Amino acid sequence: MRRLLTPALLSSVLIASLVLTGCGGRADGSPPPGTSDQTPAGNITEPGGQDPAQEPGGSEDPGQEPGGSTGENPEPGGSGGPGGEQEPGGGSDPTDPAGEPSQPQKPVRTMPNPVRGLHLSGWYAGSPDLVWPLLDWAWEAGINTIVLDLKAEDGYLSWESNVPLAQEIGANLAKIRDLPAFIAEAHERGFWVAGRIVVMNDQWLYKARPEWAVPGFDGGAYSFMDPANENVWTYNIDIAKEAIAAGVDEIQFDYIRYSEHLRDGYNGKDTTAEYRTGNINAFLRRAMEELKPLGVVVGADLFGLTTSVAEGDDMEIGQDYRAVMEIVDYVAPMVYPSHYAPWTYGLENPNAAPYETVYNSMSRALARTEGLPIEKHRPWIQDFSLGGITYGPAEVMAQVQALRDLGIESFMLWDPSNKYTREISFK
Prior knowledge:
The protein is an alpha/beta fold. It has helices spanning 7-23, 122-125, 128-141, 164-169, 179-188, 203-208, 230-246, 273-291, 321-325, 354-368, 393-405, and strands spanning 116-120, 145-151, 192-198, 250-254, 297-303, 330-334, 380-382, 411-414.
């Protein structure tokens, strides 16, 4: 009879699995230092990093120096003010009766209840011959929400932004040629549009503003900014504001954490969980203060094991499940069964037990957040195959059923290829 892994080792292995499938692995595939002892296994991401080789249209080398070519479109003709408060393309800001510039307003739309979503990469969204057939299927299958990459793990924005700092550092890449038009068509088709923003992992900002960063990274695709640096907060909130002006209904923050690579003075043993979670939570509070008046929903992606670790354990990355839920509108834990270590929850192979893995993880989430609305849980679930286990309709629906059995009706699907299992109805 094999013994269960210790909580500390479970935490370490799960971080490694999530990180090395897109939210933190080194570009050369070598295992990261620190708490992780697991080697990379595939290209699945958190819930995010798309492998450019899998995306239509290709991708520029994310390792190029800032200031290089950022796509086929010419440079935008003008720059909006800080915060991206103008619609892309320029124009004057509206003013209030006192003559002061007002915040951009957007038509109030009602978030679906429940939310049934799927992730959409910038490249896929920018390929009409692929994206609209996919969304035709999705609507018929009961999907009502798309989570669109606005700023992904490669540090690029998916459109030609007017945010001055994005232009300066070379972060614009016209994956989507006309963001407002894409969002408008998605709305016409009935979809709620969430915009996903990767915050702390940002190679372009790292290269251009190393003084804002966690030192010791190589400036490549995995390079972390300092979560305590308010300039980093401002840049990402400015991006969110411009996306809101373009029409998104929701902002979803990802990589709101410290790197799992330990760094003295940041998330080494010389800092505390209270210090780390304090910085993450302060960013989210500021984002809520600045974005909620603009009429959007704000959510946060968290590691799956944050639902289950001991109280006060931030996994050395600054994430506290309940604390984050008390700040934002919803929390999206990444409960992909393939990302849990053997014997987690007593399961020999969690990847082979999608129902049990998701049920155990989210039952602990509910216990941890007693007194908070159940609607604030919106997990990411797995629609990809990894680790020798093939996921198809039965495996995807097993996760959905586990959530339903707990009373959780909202969820989002992640498939790095954006293909998704089509033989399913979520209605």
